[in-house]
Amino acid sequence: MARVWLFGPDVNTDQIVPGRYAPYMLKDESELRRYPFIEHRPDFAPNVRPGDIIVAGKNFGCGSSREYAPLALRMVGIGAIIAPLFARIFFRNALNLGIPCFTADLTKELADGDEVELDLEQSRITTADGRVIHLPPPPLFLREVWAAGGIVPFYRQYGRFPGEVGQ
Amino acid sequence: MPTMSEQILSRVAGRPVRAGDVVTASVDLVMVHDSLAPGIIRILHNELGAERVWDPQRVAVVIDHVAPAASVQTAEKQQEVRRWVRAQGIPNLFDVGRGISHPVLVEEGLAQPGMLILGSDSHSTAYGCIGAFGTGMGSTDIALALATGKTWLRVPETIVVRAHGTFGFGVGPKDLALRAARILRADGATYAAIEWHGVEHLSVMERMTLATLSIEMGAKAGIVPPTGLSVTGPLVPTVDADAQYQKVVDIDLSQLEPQVSAPHYVDNVVDLSELGHVAVDVVYLGTCTNGHYEDMAVAAQILAGRRLAPGVRMIVVPASAQALQRAAADGTLATLLAAGATIGTPGCGACIGRHMGVLAPGEVCVFTGNRNFRGRMGSPEAQIYLVSPAVAAATALTGYLTDPRTVMDRSPAVAH
Q: Would you say the pTM of this structure is higher than 0.90?
């Protein structure tokens, strides 16, 4: 089972990884795994498990273009992020890194610490008490990028950018 | 007729496009900054397997985020970036002290009207100050653009912020930008572009204040019509009466009060008069939003012949070397120094909380920059208020958040 980590609205990339903890400031980029939410929610990094999901309010990932914010979340194995609205650059960065993002508001339906199962193929969450929550299925080109493991493997595989189909 | 974004993106897509279309576009210019350059270089070479950038002439590299270096680590990474720039034959490296990427690329004439400009910094919306479509992207997108000269994007809908009249005494472009953030909120322009109309009377760098802050409303681009400028480019976008807009926001400049963004969200904006007594430790004048010559000049007009309040530190970090030189040549700098301000190397300064004036727990800072997120400038226990240069200077005189109209000389020479 995956654990739900619940966040409020307008979580910015400075809260995900403060600029002072950028790879630029570190000896080794792998240290980054210790820093997601280091000041905003210090219990996150030591306790998060691969496959856990972030459920947040609107405008998740606003602020800086720093890709090391979603990269830090990928390093700790975040399985998906679900929010009613994502900031544009963050959404693109997460897509590029192969982190599934679903546009839905589950902040009232799920509580912090809930145990759930996420079915990416079916865009579906099943809670420990058997409730099934359907997520709006993302557009095909997003799922293609996730399936490839991110934009770099996608580009190397197909030799084109997402969304070019049918033009 | 198309919006300015549609005009520009039609040019770089090579076909007429409309809001909602997903396009693959040729990129005119890619800006890479020191903070993310090492990661971008690694993705370019190691993950994409590209040995060369697609066109060295169309790449600009700027060392502005930690300039000069703050540690052995940052010094090593800057060394790596310089070596890479030489090996790639990139002619445009703007090294320590030249200033922040956004004003620098405009000053150098590299950023031009009608261009599609991608930057590794989120405030790359700043290039809209001269009528370019500037947008920030993450490291992987920038690496892909460096490898291919192309990117993909969805043509945004457009929100218009329409300014009417002229600024009252002591009020300026930053107040307009914060007012727009107050109305649209931090997510109000997500996936959209903002066009700023009715601001032809502003200088290029004053327009940059508006274009830069556009990202704080979530915008993909923030474009000011390049009206009245001498710069030209591949396309001079124009405002068409028949363009289709998602939304129009009207703001009467003559009724605008000094605006303040209170901690810890940019859209937490109120009229300054609504706030009570806020004692301040640090006044920080700088950044791509408000570290321009005009901003230093406004502060100097208020501080002329006066001294900072006891206990207040005022740090001025010019946005570019050209702005600093201009301020040195006409006495602006001498006025700021005589008042007790200290001057930093042109660049981003403490905006990202890495050096040159980071904040201690409990400190209160009034800041002319673009973000007041918790922990942005140092300790998460510090408080950051975003203000105009005039409010910053007035506050430096009194030691508490102050309406500049209460301390300013009302002689006609005083600008906004």
A: yes
